[in-house]
Amino acid sequence: MIEIFLKTLPFFALIALGFQSGRTGFFTAEATAYLTKFVFYFALSAMLFRFAANLSISEIFDWWFVAAYLWGCGVVYLLATAVAFFRGVGIQEAAVEAQCSVIGNTGFLGVPMLVVLLGENAAGPVLMILAMDLIVFSSLITILITGSRDGRMSVAILGTVGKGLLKNPMIVSIALGLIWSGLSLPIPEVANEFLGILGAAATPGALFAIGASLAGKSAERMSVAGWLSFCKLVLHPGAVAIAALWLFPVAAFDAAVMISAAALPVAGNVYILAQHYGVAPQRVSAAILISTAISIVTVSLVIAWVTPLL
């Protein structure tokens, strides 16, 4: 446990550095926005394309893997939704809270950290999880909130979902990388070097940006945020572990990566969606703050637990 904690500590130290820089005003909100944009559109995209271009569809896509992950997510998603309804909140707030309970920071934290900690073979499973989070759950929250406001489902909603996916550089990078791999095209040495240098900026840039963005977040309903953090850091990896280790025939290594990814704190893109739709953004901020702080310990515990499976 101590050894794993020491390995994860540098990643969270970068987040803390970004947080302190943002909190003191040395790194302004505008600077954070531009750093995030650089990481999102350039550095992380280069890393994801390079990973995907060196993998095949068979190395990434596995029906049992998909079923196990979605089963684990579905259980926690429905539980968080039921608790929200029990408290008397509407479908829009319930959808946002459910999103907090199952969507981890796979893009900015999981991809760089888990590939380093678990090995490059973890890239395939992590990319699959990232794709499911973006395609399935980002689409689901859009459909629920928009459909709730319109009072019905429409073709326009599906069009909005499709446009959102096509504009997401992480989805585009993974798709282009897999197409490149499927065509069996080698990456030219100069291009590979370029992608390697640019992609290397993703890890420190993303972690620093996470911390700096947290410094500007406000909070409300801390008890609810605490419950959502518990869902994300404990119930989500627990449900995914039950699915991957006992209910579905998932390979041991893939199960370990899946459980580790499920243990990640609430993703920043949940806040972006909540702010975009004007649904409980401060509550999401609080969940991100709390889950990120506590995950310094819980992520290490989960990775230490699954290490024998590697």
What does the model show?
The chain is an all-alpha fold and 310 residues long. 82% of the residues lie in helices and 0% in strands. The chain contains 15 helices and no strands. α2 (29-53) packs antiparallel against α10 (189-200). The longest helix is centred in the middle third of the chain and has 28 residues, at 123-150. The protein is globular, with a radius of gyration of 19 Å.
Features:
310 residues; mainly alpha; single chain; 15 helices
How many H/I helical runs? 15
User: Element order, helices and strands?
Assistant: HHHHHHHHHHHHHHH
How many angstroms does the end-to-end distance come to?
15 Å
Mean pLDDT, as a whole number? 89
- Estimate the helix proportion, in percent: over 70%
Strand segment count? 0
Proportion of residues in β-strands? under 5%
Helix/strand class: mainly alpha
From the spread of the alpha carbons, the general shape counts as: globular
User: Unreliable segments (pLDDT under 50, ≥5 consecutive)?
Assistant: none
Major sheet summary line? none
User: What is the radius of gyration?
Assistant: 19 Å
